[in-house]
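Notebook, student rotation project (T.W.).
Task set for the rotation: take a protein with a known small-molecule partner, predict the structure of the complex, and write up what can be learned from the model alone. Partner molecule chosen: zinc ion. Sequence and SMILES entered below by T.W., checked by me.
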Amino acid sequence: MKLPTTLNINGYIYKIKYTDDMRTVSDDGEKCFGYIDSYNKEITVYKDGHEMQTILHEVFHALSEILHLKCFDGKKGHKELDILSSAVMDFLIRNNIVKL
Ligand SMILES: [Zn+2]
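Predicted structure of the complex:
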């Protein structure tokens, strides 16, 4: 599958970058598979074979910020964002909308 280098997320163009370096960006020092820079409209994705899953996760972060959603705030909200992005990815694959 060809991975995107730009995405239009609710009217905003985000640049998608891919890296072999897993960045440590969370407050508690956890390694992250993806990182979103909302100010510069950039999403960085770790190349691990699950890039689309990570991109979808970061798209939910972008939508949450753009739409001023509060439901994904905090650690519990982030976990639910991750579960939702996994479920949506599963839906896209099962219905042949996304092919891996
Ligand atoms: Zn996240």
